[in-house]
Amino acid sequence: MVKARRVLITDTTLRDGHQSLWATRMRTGDMLPILGRMDEIGFYSLEAWGGATFDSCLRFLNENPWERLRTIKQHCPKTPLQMLLRGQNLVGYRHYGDEIVRKFVLHAAENGVDIFRVFDALNDTRNIEVAAEAIKEAGKHFQAAVSYTISPVHTLDHYLETAHRFAEMGADSICIKDMAALLSPFHCEQLVRRLKEEIDLTVEVHCHYIGGLAPMTYLKAIEAGADIIDTATVPLAFGASNPATEMVVTALTGTPYDTELELDRLFEIAKYFEGVRQRGGFSRGVTSITHMQVYSHQVPGGMISNLESQLEEQNALDRLPEVLKEIPLVRAEVGYPPLVTPMSQIVGTQAVLNVLSGKRWQVVPDEMKSYLRGKYGQAPGPVNAEVMHKVLGDEQPITCRPAELIDETLDRFAEEIGDLARNEEDVLTYALFPATARVFLERRRHGVEDDVFLTQEQEADQTGGAAMDINHIRELIAAVEESSIAEVTIEEGDTRITVRKGGEAAPGEAVAAPAMAAKPAVPDSYFVVKSPMVGTFYRAASPTSDPFVEEGDEVAVGQTLCILEAMKLMNEVTSEVDGTVRSVLVEDARPVEYGTPMFYIEPLAANLFEDAEVEG
Fold it and tell me: Where are the beta strands (DSSP E) in 323-397?
């Protein structure tokens, strides 16, 4: 006879739901009217923060993510709030110093986070140690997540060993994080049963729907002893998101695992979010053939959506099938990392670059180089020696905990951002996303700040249906002209505004072409370095650094010429020839299109030929 026990539900609508389906574009104002009713439902927790929400608030919504957290907590005093923390990466895409990690966790706890779900993309538990200590010191719940994937090195023993280490670190619960929807029902049953037998901790299961296995996987997990499962309200469920709450609650009603949640109240919430979906023009979660192919290419649905966006930006959406074939090859070459942030972005971007450039491993982002250097942690499996040598030469990867080599302090970031920061939260925001945060803080200083409490309807009412009114645009121009910012681009709905010093673009006007220096006459012998992607051109590693190269500099094969910021990563462009830089064709911090000429290099062979003519 089955022993009755209530299965608990974590609602992911406010974080993973709209991150997976709506590119994390739901505004705080669209959450506010329904938060009180969500708080009354009886969820185990509301996943409301972390992941990509922090970055998106700043980058796309012009909202303060800290204020969002405080606001949700104020309206949901009964239900614990949960966040997704990427270990030493926090909510960013690189490792941060230990002091930054500790301070971030402290402020998150003080502002309303009760449960911290912490994972490392490589299941390298060393990358979770400092965050775990900080969570425990703050008196909050430390949920350690095991990132699930399929590979020759990801065995049942691997997951159990990882979970045992988490328990030794003081975890309050264990989460099986199936971000790619690869966890099959019977493998899940086996894993959950072993966890419950060997570790005396609560077990939560987090699956994405994508190919459709998740509901069956949840049922087998519950039968094996899982205590909590993750779902989203139906307008933000299915597809790349999680299974629908209403479906799971109905399936368990009247069973020994009854969730005791009221369907009528759940559907009230669903109807509200359906209105948000319709007004915002957001898509439903659907399963396509490409999504179903996750079982062969193992690319998460959310990652596929990101790849589609990246390729569309590069005017190469038709090459998605090639990229999907390339991703498993890259993943195997770099030791089978789970395809979860940031490794999904790193592996996916490398695959895109391999395909678009036509030369595998010719353009390698800084983040991929850092991964191969061991700066993200220990690769799960062996890295291809040829790839390692091509990217790093004779350099040897590090073996210590990566954060031990990071020398950065909050004071340093406070000094850099100066009086733009009003408090320590602003400094942390700048430490995590320097360029994006500076734009946000500059806009705030000049009063160009959206009201985070406006819903889509209220915003449309105020602007007559347009995303931005003319006063907003004028304020944006003033902010740029009076600040140190060279350029700001704002996208609202179908409107895109780009403002650069000395000029402005009208609503809906195409963004101006990259500012180019006058092209000199180009000898046929010169090598033209063209942009391998759409992105932003940077001559130096940072605003305070010297340019990588100047006109007249001699360069060698493999030497860095510039950085292109694209697809959320910093991509170094290196020289393919030995020679002399004759022209730098793009101004610093300017956008470039695919194929834009950036440098003219006179190859060494041409130099020798000209010298011979002079001597003769």
Answer: 364-365
